[in-house]
Amino acid sequence: MKDVLFIIGSESDKDAVTPATELLEKKGLSFTLEVISAHRDLARLITFLKEEEPRHRVIITAAGLSAALPGVVASLTTKPVIGIPLVAGALSGIDALLSILQLPKGIPVATMGIGKQGALNAVHLAERIINCAKN
User: Are 110 and 94 in contact (CB under 8 A)?
Assistant: First the structure.
């Protein structure tokens, strides 16, 4: 079983999450990074999660603008989901932050800060969740 399933919505998000994937490697946490858009390829996301969710302990998602990905993923799993709002658009990530924060009850997502700091904190939180599960 791998530690973290990391999902981003587009190839262009890879640069924004590189500090997080580097930190995962530095901490020795195993992970899978996948690019799947909740907007453009929902059917693929649903199929992918059914296959991969049981193979991972925690799911980290990153999204900008309307930031649907974290909420969609959280609605499809019972695993802990961590959402990273990315800097994008006219509001520089504030819209993504609010989209991830304001999910309906029963769809919990641990929401990090915007951008690099949030990406790094997502890894730290994932590590804590994993360590708690091991004890």
Answer: no
